[in-house]
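#help-structures
NK: newbie question, is this the right format to request a structure? protein is Antitermination protein NusG
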Amino acid sequence: MFLKLLLTALVIAGALLTLRMRSQRRLNQYAPEPRVLKAPGRDVRAKRMPQLLAAGAVLLMLIGASLYLYHQWRDAYQLVSIHVIDTRSGQSSQYQAYKGDIEGRKFTTTDGRVVTLAEVERMETGAD
């Protein structure tokens, strides 16, 4: 949750920095140029800093999104054992399925069977 807030703050800061740089460029475009000698390397560094910050923010977002997608994918393909218990008779059945294939009262087992639970059945899941 903290990383999402940090990422949002970085995006907002980058957008504000970009808008500020554009407005300064427009103001400098209409103002007469003063005749002051500048150091040659300083102007290049001043222009590159926002670009590097923006590239760093984009890189950080891509890394964060990649890690999130990898975590979701790994979690969905985790093998779990499912214990289905009939509350009327007490009979139980054991199945194995991937965590991503469980949808409420319905799941698909690893061998391709689709199991839908009745109202009187209870499902318990556990990691293998």
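mod (FA): yep, format's fine, and the tokens are attached above. The longest strand covers residues 92-103.
NK: thank you!
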